[in-house]
Automatic annotation (TrEMBL):
<feature type="binding site">
    <location>
        <begin position="12"/>
        <end position="17"/>
    </location>
    <ligand>
        <name>NAD(+)</name>
    </ligand>
</feature>
<feature type="binding site">
    <location>
        <position position="37"/>
    </location>
    <ligand>
        <name>NAD(+)</name>
    </ligand>
</feature>
<feature type="binding site">
    <location>
        <position position="85"/>
    </location>
    <ligand>
        <name>substrate</name>
    </ligand>
</feature>
<feature type="modified residue" description="Phosphotyrosine">
    <location>
        <position position="225"/>
    </location>
</feature>
<dbReference type="InterPro" id="IPR036291">
    <property type="entry name" value="NAD(P)-bd_dom_sf"/>
</dbReference>
<feature type="binding site">
    <location>
        <position position="91"/>
    </location>
    <ligand>
        <name>substrate</name>
    </ligand>
</feature>
<dbReference type="GO" id="GO:0006096">
    <property type="term" value="P:glycolytic process"/>
</dbReference>
<dbReference type="InterPro" id="IPR022383">
    <property type="entry name" value="Lactate/malate_DH_C"/>
</dbReference>
<keyword id="KW-0021">Allosteric enzyme</keyword>
<dbReference type="GO" id="GO:0005737">
    <property type="term" value="C:cytoplasm"/>
</dbReference>
<feature type="domain" description="Lactate/malate dehydrogenase N-terminal">
    <location>
        <begin position="6"/>
        <end position="145"/>
    </location>
</feature>
<keyword id="KW-0520">NAD</keyword>
<dbReference type="GO" id="GO:0006089">
    <property type="term" value="P:lactate metabolic process"/>
</dbReference>
<dbReference type="InterPro" id="IPR018177">
    <property type="entry name" value="L-lactate_DH_AS"/>
</dbReference>
<comment type="subunit">
    <text>Homotetramer.</text>
</comment>
<feature type="binding site">
    <location>
        <position position="171"/>
    </location>
    <ligand>
        <name>beta-D-fructose 1,6-bisphosphate</name>
    </ligand>
</feature>
<feature type="binding site">
    <location>
        <position position="42"/>
    </location>
    <ligand>
        <name>NAD(+)</name>
    </ligand>
</feature>
Length: 317
């Protein structure tokens, strides 16, 4: 039986949107990749540039337009469009503008791709995801945010670097807000099955004591600021992270990823979008895992929820 070709649509042809498209082409994520952006010249140029490299990647087509019809019948829609920051504009004002843009664009995309799984990547991702759920009326599994998938990858990289092991053997999660109040779950982190808190240095590795954990946490929280200061935006890692989420959906992987959803059924968390390890498959964001947490971690998660709840209130959500 012939498998139906898959289609990935990406809203926004900026640094993040094009990174998602490029990573998805290289990894052979979908048979068709569609870019949509209101800047016709930009989206046309980006599609042409990537098309010239199609010989070197798994078989795919890449298309683009300034009209939402290019997203028609998409299986997954990755939403990266956001308002551009104006001189003197605060982050709060920028967030408000991005939420407004999401509200404006979403109905048209829903009309042409009503059955797609929607992945929100635009910052502040938790607030934008919560707003998009309200405006779209989609169920919690069908629309969710990229959350702390990137933050968790940053955490694993730093642990691997500190302990001198391969990052693929590190299992650790950041939960809560994708932002300053996010929480690393040290108590459940492990390296090759060894609990991180019991890890003993090997070779050139170092002890991962309280001071090391504090430093790593600080670096994860401030990673984006450092990158933005140096090059203006973060795009490669979030492009790979978003692509990994898309793969989990299209390949029905039942992969555990810390995506941002409304944590229905969790006391104190059921009215905000935040990240918890969640099973992601063809139906989107499914069951959230009940992670063991220390008292400090649980307290931090609740504080993160309060931070997000206060932000939602500012936007009338």
């Amino acid at each position: 039986m012939e498998v139906r070709p898959t289609k990935l649509a990406i809203i926004g042809a900026g640094a993040v949107g094009t990174a998602v498209a490029y990573a998805s082409l290289i990894r052979g994520v979908a048979r068709t990749i569609a870019l949509m952006d209101i800047n016709t010249a930009k989206v046309t140029a980006e599609v042409l540039d990537m098309s010239h490299g199609l010989e070197f990647v798994p078989r795919a087509d890449i298309i683009g337009d300034d009209d939402v019809s290019v997203c028609a019948d998409a299986d997954v829609v990755v939403f990266t469009a956001g308002a551009k920051q104006k001189p003197g504009q605060s982050r709060l004002e920028l967030a408000e503008a991005t939420i407004g843009l999401t509200k404006k664009i979403m109905p048209g995309v829903l009309e042409v791709a009503p059955n797609a799984v929607y992945i929100m990547v635009t910052n502040p991702v938790d607030i934008v995801t919560y707003a998009a759920l309200k405006y779209s009326g989609l169920p919690n599994n069908q629309l969710f945010g990229s959350g702390t998938v990137l933050d968790s990858s940053r955490l694993r990289f730093l642990i691997a670097q500190h302990c001198d092991v391969a990052v693929q053997n590190v299992h650790a999660y950041i939960v809560g807000e994708h932002g300053d109040s996010e929480i690393p779950l040290w108590s459940s982190a492990s390296i090759g099955g060894v609990p991180l808190l019991h890890w003993k240095p090997l070779g050139d590795g170092q002890a991962i004591d309280a001071a090391a954990r504090e430093r790593i946490h600080h670096e994860v929280v401030h990673a984006a600021y450092k990158i933005i200061e140096g090059k203006g935006a973060t795009n490669y890692a979030i492009g790979l992270a978003a692509t990994r989420i898309v793969e989990a959906v299209l390949n029905n992987e039942h992969r555990v990823l810390p995506v941002s959803t409304v944590a229905t059924g969790y006391e104190g968390l059921d009215d905000v979008c935040l990240s918890l390890p969640t099973i992601v498959d063809r139906g989107g964001a499914q069951t959230r895992l009940e992670m063991p947490m220390s008292d400090d971690e649980l307290s931090g998660l609740m504080h993160s929820a309060e931070t997000l709840r206060a932000m939602q209130a500012k936007f009338g959500l």
